[in-house]
Amino acid sequence: MYTRMYVPSDGPADRFVPPPGGLHRLHLVEYDGGLRLCEDETGLLVGPTDRRLQRAGLYVANVRGVGYYPEAARRADLSPGRPLRLVREPDNPHDPFAVAVHPNYGKEPIGYVNRQKARYWSKLIAAGTRLTAVSLRGTGPGVDCDGVAVLAAAPEVVAHLMAPRPPDLPEPVYLRQRVTALRVPGRSE
């Protein structure tokens, strides 16, 4: 039997918006070598391109141009969950809304927020919105890196998302599917 692993992309526009004075009902979980958002109540994964995330103050993007900064990317720890810095570059000759992605400790960027999202992110940062960023997908230091994905949100939101999921929540669906797939048909447990 096939079970859906992702939250359907249709449905209420405010599905991921936390209740007034409350916390997001999401946490980051390890999935396929990276991190993915997981809905607390259902255990369903949230697709990184789900348009409702932005409404909830959660910004996800692939980092572009990593191939132009291979040495910086190789030196950096871009492992999932590692902190990253977002730096506006209003004087960038290619894009006045460019947002560079730096390792938390480095001066050289490892790439840029993709152009489609950079305009919005740049305006948020310019308006004084505090964003903390973490790697969702990447490699450790000393390893060639061909792709990085980043999540940015308010610092307290990122701290909440990174915290372990409470044990009373349903297990993420993809873990339940693995257990089911490992069971041998016709064998009682």
What does this molecule look like?
It is a single chain. The protein has 189 residues and is α+β, with helices and mostly antiparallel strands. It has one domain (26-182): Alpha-Beta Plaits. 21% of the residues lie in helices and 25% in strands. The protein has five helices and nine strands. It has helices spanning 52-55, 70-75, 115-126, 155-162, 173-182; strands at residues 26-31, 34-39, 45-46, 59-64, 83-89, 98-103, 111-113, 132-137, 148-153. The strands form two sheets. The chain has a six-stranded antiparallel β-barrel with strand order 4-7-6-5-8-9. A three-stranded antiparallel sheet has the order 1-2-3. Residues 179-184 have low confidence and may be disordered.
